[in-house]
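User: Some background: our group keeps a shared notebook of sequences we're curious about, and every so often someone picks one and asks for a predicted structure to add to the entry. Today it's my turn. The entry only has the sequence so far, pasted here. Could you supply the structure so I can complete it?
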Amino acid sequence: NILNTSAASTIKTPLLPSMTTKEEIHVSIHGIKEFPDGYDEPRGHGPRYSQTESPAEMGSMKRPPAHSAIQMMQKLPSSVLGFSFTCNSFFARRLFVSGFTIVVIDVSALVLLYFFRDRKYRMWRNDNDFQCDRWVSFAAFSYWCGAAVFFLTLPATGIRMFELFTRKKPSDLSDKKFKVTRTWYLQFCEVLAVFLVVYMVCLTLGCIGYLINNQFRCYRVLDIAYACAAIVVFCSQFAFISHFTQFREHIKMQLGAFRESNQTGDIRAHWGTKRAKTSVQHIRKQLYKAVEHGNLDDVQALLDEAALLLGNAFAQHMYPSAKLVLGYFAVSEKNPVHVAASMGNIPALRLLFAAGFDVNALDKVSRVRISTSDLFWFFIRYVVEQPVSSVDQHKHKRLTLLTPLHCAVATSQIDTVRFLVDEMHAAVDTLAVSPSAADRIPPLFYAEHPNIVEILLSAGANLLMVPGSGWVY
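Assistant: Of course. Here's the predicted structure to add to the notebook entry:
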């Protein structure tokens, strides 16, 4: 009681004017720490709010580096993660249980059909009741989906050869750009899941069509029970596809790839190993990466190498404005100016423009990825809603050619916009090139910051321009 009274009086007693802030905080915390367990404060929730940490302890509580989880995963077993993997992950456990249950039922039903139907103690008689045999056939087609379910369940077993994504190697953990590599097994599973969905839709339409055109005349109880069980398992497979998709998203987000564009299947890399890259291709790729990573020393070195190899006018030959082929297709030039403008890297822009890069060059900023992920989501979206974090923003840019000023305005890089307009005299009314008339707009239409709007209008941007000459579709 004396301790409580002393502590309470310590808090309620007015502090002297000469007391510093540090002393005030020390007295308050000291008073709170003296409350015994179970004491109810009139304005708080007990002693759990009284814990204090030293600066060293607070430093240790900081968020770990972005790749610390990847470093921990390097210590995992090389072949099998064990049963603890399935038990520790809700998504893995749910996928394993639902998939294993469906596979067991499907295999049992097929064994029952093909090994017991034509024996002495057969459950079905091959009489003239053709319609019952037809419904049993539909059920058998449904049970064969268990083969696809089996392969889609394997990633949840903890066997690492069936992993959906590969981790970064320890030597790659210092890279600023984080990419998750999609395994070949994931791409196989995505194609298999699409095939399963299409197969199930076709089977459903076939059953509905047969039921509409033929009166139901099957009266054999075992056949009806066999078909009804197939319907239940068939419907549960849609839930299983949802479980696989959520497990896929869970693993992907654990590795930091929240959007589909944060992962790669390395298809281009596999193709690239079959053909020797020229010096121009090497410079183009390395210069793009150097600007993307903000490494100015590498940028200058690559620019000097390109000028020595191709001449001082190499930028006009290597990086012409991209063009739409047949009004719809375009190949990205991988222009580093657009990357630097999007990131607001003015020093890199100065180096590039000094090397002769065009300030008004058009390029396709968002390149189309060669991946089974797009095919997967094109069909699976009708079964499972795609998470918002996985949706790549500004998908229209995949088919739209933009100038560096478009990129800087779209990312609200105020200083970069001012640099491009005032110092480099970039054209403020250049229209984007796109198959869609609604996307053929000037940089002003991308502006979201009032300062950027003011800069563009001061430079003579046309406020009254109508996209596509009035046609919006």
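Suggested note for the entry: The mean pLDDT is 73. The CA atoms of residues 117 and 123 lie 6 Å apart.
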